[in-house]
Amino acid sequence: TMARGYHLNRYYYYSNKNTTTYTLSRGARTTRAFSGKSTSSSSAPASSDLEAVNDDGDESDDGIERIKRNAGRESAEVIVALGKFDAMHRGHKALAAAAATLSKDNTKSTSKKVKQQAVLLSFENMAEVLGWKPKKPVTAKRDRGRVLKEWSEEVVALDGVEESDSDCYCIREHGVPFASIREMSPERFVKTLKERLGVAGVVAGENYRFGYRASGSAEDLVSFGEKYGLRVKIVSLLDADKLGAEACDNDGCKGEQVSSSRVRACLKFGD
After folding, report:
1. Burial profile 194-211: b = 16 or more Cβ within 10 angstroms, e = fewer
2. How far is CA 64 from CA 67, 153, 175, 179, 184, in A?
3. pLDDT exceeds 90 at position 182
4. What residues form DSSP beta bridges with 119?
5. What is the spatial distance between Cα 141 and Cα 147, in angstroms, rounded to a whole number?
6. How many whole angstroms separate alpha carbon 271 and alpha carbon 78?
7. What is the arrangement of strands in the sheet containing 172-177, beginning at the earlier edge strand?
8. What is the DSSP letter of 50?
9. How do beta strands 77-82 and 116-124 pair?
10. For 145, phi and psi rounded to 5 degrees?
């Protein structure tokens, strides 16, 4: 029978059709052999012994799900704000508000009615995948819905939105498994936002990094956004105005902007 290739984090398990040896290889290079005889890089099966495998990987079970719209708003544009959104601080609130109003910002000169869905897009199990020391969330999971509701109501009040359109500004959350995107290049990540999550626009802070080993910058996000037809808005960092400066110095956190690290430091030192 033909040998089969199974995708797992961009590696492939090969079963040679003449043996029971299973080999973990990436491309033509074998990195480890399982059960049976040990194999070297030269013993990887020929392409004729393998079923075709999509170069982008098996996407059917990687946990990446298309973002759903609110009921009755199935045709709405999805605008995502990118970040970790742990502390849900003022900087995160600014990103959420920018996402909630991005479509409106682009239709001010027209009579087109705004139909959008603002979503905070974060990446699940990042600490576990990277081997970081786990931290308790600053904002409890049960409180996140309440905070999002308050932010949504503030956007509606500030923008003078009509009652019938208020649900367009309802800010939601959506999670993507970090393991599924950690090895993506910056360009492939943006392409995934467009083609698999159904995103129409993106909002991020000016210091946002993305892609494999954080190789992509905010400028790259704008560039790839243009290539794949995504509207992109980069939001300036919020100055902390010296609030928590002493606690931040004591805890070793960097930067003068509002950040989750600064919030954690303030809580730690009672500032």
Report:
1. bebbebbbbbbbeebbbb
2. 9, 29, 8, 10, 13
3. yes
4. 80, 172
5. 10
6. 38
7. 172-177, 116-124, 77-82, 199-205, 231-235
8. B
9. parallel
10. -60, -40
Q: What percent of the chain clears pLDDT 70, i.e. is strictly above it?
A: 68
pTM of the full structure: 0.71
Tokens 């590696």 belong to residue: 11
At 174 the three-state DSSP class reads strand
118, 170 in Cβ contact below 8 A? yes
Phi/psi-derived region of residue 252, left when phi > 0, alpha when psi is between -120 and 50, beta in every other case: left
CA dist., res. 140 & res. 143, Å (int)? 5
Examine the pLDDT at 85 and tell me if it is beyond 90. Answer: yes
Structure tokens at 221: 């996000």
Contacts of 77 (CB under 8 A, 6+ apart): 103, 115, 116, 117, 200, 201
- Helical ranges in the chain per DSSP H: 90-105, 126-130, 141-159, 178-181, 186-195, 218-227, 245-251, 260-269
